[in-house]
Amino acid sequence: MADLITLTIDGRKLKVPAGTLVIEAAKQAGIEIPAFCYYEGFSLQAACRMCLVEVEKMPKLQPSCTLPAADGMVVHTESPKVADARKGMLEFLLTNHPLDCPVCDKGGECELQDMVFRYGAGESRFTEIKYHQDEKQWSPLVYYDPARCILCYRCVRVCDEGLGVGALGLTYRGVAAEITPSHGDHLECDECGWCIDVCPVGALTSGTYRYQSRPWEMNHTGTICTHCADGCKTTLSVRNGAIIRANNRDRSGYNGEFLCVKGRFGYDFVHSGERLQSPMIRKNGKLEPVSWSEALAAVATKFSEIKARGGKFGVIGSTRTTNEENYYLQKFARQGLGTASVDHHRTGDVPALIDALSGKTDALAAMADLYQAKAALVIGADLAQQHPLIAYQLRANYRHHKMAAYLVNPGASREEQYAKKSVHAPPGKEMEAVASLAGELKGHEDLVVIFGASLRGEGVRQLVSFGDTLGIPVKYVCLVDYSNSRGAMDMGLVPELLPGYRSVREAGMEPGLALDEMLAAKDLDALWAVGANPLESAELASSAAFVVVQDLFLTETARRAEVVLPAQSAYEKNGTVTSVTGEVQKLKAGAKVMGTKADLEIMGLIAKEMGLNLGIWSPDKVFEEIRRTVRGYNIPLPVVATGGAAQTTPVNGRVPAMPRPEHIRPSGDTLFTSGTLGRYSKRLSSVMEAPGELFKG
Amino acid sequence: MPKIQEILSGAAAIAKGMGVTIKEMMNPVITDDYPDAPPKFQERYRGLHVLQRDEDGLEKCVACFLCSAACPAQCIYIEAADNTAQERISGGERYAKVYNIDYSRCIFCGYCVEACPTDAITHGHGFELASFNTSTLIYRKEKLLAPLAPGQTGKVKLDHPVMAETGH
Q1: What pLDDT, in 10s, does the model give residues A502-514?
Q2: φ, ψ dihedrals at A244, nearest 5°
Q3: What's the rounded Cα separation, in Å, for the pair B56 and B91?
Q4: Hey, are the CB atoms on A102 and B68 less than 8 Å from each other?
Q5: Partner of A674 for a Cys bridge, out of A176, A218, A636, A678, CB 3.0 to 4.6 A?
């Protein structure tokens, strides 16, 4: 803890650490100093002059956003002199700012509007004609209206410092000054839309939310993004059951305000015209819409029949459904259908890491650790493309704490901008490159290691034993690709493991078929794919197999199915998901799509139809059961229930039966692709950067 | 004697009463002949809303949602859309694609008119709203819009100042 100093703000004596900015000290005391350009976590600008305060014994008003508090300082934030200055500044800002609040998207949540309302002059002394420039479209997602811009540089700083993209800058001078993309008239960036979010006025507007609604017309639901495994909290703004905006202005969740293009714009697959809205059964070789009761009865009858004659089931779970659904599915398969052939599309070797870390506590990094660690080692991952939040956390750590980053990648990545050392090594040769960094890594206080799917099985064990030789505390993150990939593994959607990394032999079963083996089995009687599309890149060998698919869209697998059941996306249901760092967060239903049901309800109804007793199929009840029975998941309920992230406790024991690492297939998704969902998101493919490439810097 | 007095005072009373009657017979009639003749309204009578047009016949409404926000009965529903170079509906950047007023809820308080920044929504003098079917009480934009005046097309030429200003 730094030395405490005492200062007085508006007559209140405060003790703050030396070096605290006056604006921050005031905020801690609950005194609001208005500011546009000051933005917590980013470099100081002192461009807007709104935060001027009067400091005794200083001749002029001082900008509180760049003024470090000093011992004995006496600050006045509401004196007549300060009020006058604010009023004057607002009058200046409004000389060119159009008064088009009624048609401006920002109206109702505009900081300038609020400040003029609170501090501003009702009338202006400027009678000159306002300098007008036309609105510009920078990309399908970003519009810029120079007339409304107050040049606070927030967008420039989040783009440059926050993301390392630096797509925005300032051109021209004086009254003609405006923000301009580095490519002149268009953006070539991450299209994350954070610039729109931080804009205090309506200068930057979203191409998708534009003119759709007004802030007070929408309901806001905080839920978890369903695209990658980073588990960003995103606030869905919903009007009439339809999502019309996503952002995270309330800063709930461990991502703060950060969202990538998928989180902020990639929700449009929910309202895609191609969504399935009615169950379908294959009749005379064609899929025909039928009622729910008919479809469920057809599935139940066929499943019961195959089970009775001891047929061969294959059950494929999803990387995007909730923990509750994954748990219920494996329970259904193992107890209800009596099969051990349960799998999902695996994208990282989590069991190998958990096994290698047995006996260690506190060795799995949480998202917050990535911001605190003194050093980071990234192996085989293009973080800015594949894990935008992890990339952001590391960059923020570097920016604020001078964290040392080491990269071992097959090609260039954006982290090289600030990395202390970057080694290019082809997949399979990473460990040699890692070993060469040992001397430097030892010099740091602690280390967090982030590795992708190129390290698996024995490679992960070698990595952990290498970590042990460093003699410093090391934490690990095993990267997985989809929103609940980690949860699917934890919930035992693999042939070898029950939930909580217990061997299936404990349940009196032998490991069943893995995903590829199910597809290759010529004698498979039934294939049940819940939120998975295994036939996208493979053929089903068994021509007689009865295929049941629960999905949002008519995927390749659904086209081959006998029965298709329309499921809900993560944005339409409740439940929990586990992020790449093993943190459990709650999903909350926002949107509504007619005719669909949550996967959990569908499974529950099939079980009921088959006369199975697998327990109540409500998310809360199943989560209760998970907390009771699954190792690591006995997490504090209030944290999850109030929208926080609770990290699962380490299993801390050997994993008795190893799922075979050869079945791991990384998705290879970039910033602009997102597996099946990304295909149905028009916006993700509408930007010129799509589809993006890995390891191209 | 009292008898005569009684007769006289009775006659005076009748004369006074008849005086009022005769005087009123001379005054102009103030009752309306509704429904045989259209009723007369004060200028500021708050009746059925009218969505006004500007001098070119473009809609004044820019779909700012302020009427809907001001409405205590929450009877105004709006969906906004973008004016394009090909199709210009309103004078501003955006227009109301959908503008519904639910007259089974409207209380004719006039707050919407007060809130409107472009003087687009006004109270007209329409009052014959009764219906046997409440679903017909939701009036759509087409029903609320002021008719085009003679000579107005509702379309703007490309050299019009509005078009030049917005760069279309």
Answers
A1: 999 998 999 999 9
A2: -120, -5
A3: 9
A4: no
A5: A678
- CA-based torsion, A441, A445, A450, A454: positive or negative: positive
Report the distance separating Cα A303 and Cα A602, nearest Å: 14
Buried b (16+ CB within 10 A) or exposed e, B108-120: beebbbebbbbeb
Q: What is the pLDDT of residue A120?
A: 83
pLDDT of A147-157, one tens digit each?
999 999 999 99
Domains of chain A with CATH codes: 4-93 (3.10.20.740), 131-271 (3.30.70.20), 280-346+484-585+594-638+657-666 (3.40.50.740), 350-479 (3.40.228.10)
3-class secondary structure, B90: strand
The residues, ordered by sequence, that sit 6+ positions from A443 with a Cβ below 8 Å of its Cβ are none
Interface test with B, best of A211, A213, A217 (most B CBs within 10 A): A211
Encoded tokens for A331:
């329970």
Dist. CA A202–CA A404, nearest whole Å: 38
pLDDT in tens, B110-166: 999 999 999 999 999 999 999 999 999 999 999 999 999 887 877 765 555 554 444
Terminus-to-terminus CA distance in chain A, angstroms? 38
Q: Which residue has the tokens 């059950």?
A: A315
Report pLDDT digits (tens) over A269-319. 999 999 999 999 999 999 999 999 999 999 999 999 999 999 999 999 999
pLDDT of A251 higher than 90: no
> Residue A491: which residues within 8 A CB-CB, separation 6 or more?
A317, A323, A326, A327, A330, A499, A626, A630
Q: Residue B168: pLDDT above 60?
A: no
For chain B, how many residues are written? Answer: 168
- ipTM, two decimals, is 0.80
Q: Contact A280/A311 with Cβ under 8 angstroms? A: no
Residue A627 CB neighbour total at 10 angstroms: 16
Q: Which residues of A touch B118 (CB under 8 A)?
A: 102
Q: Give the separation between CA A297 and CA A610, rounded to whole angstroms.
A: 8
- Residue B20 distance to chain A (closest CA, Å): 58
A interface with B, Cβ–Cβ below 8 Å: 100-103, 107, 132, 134-135, 210-214, 216-217
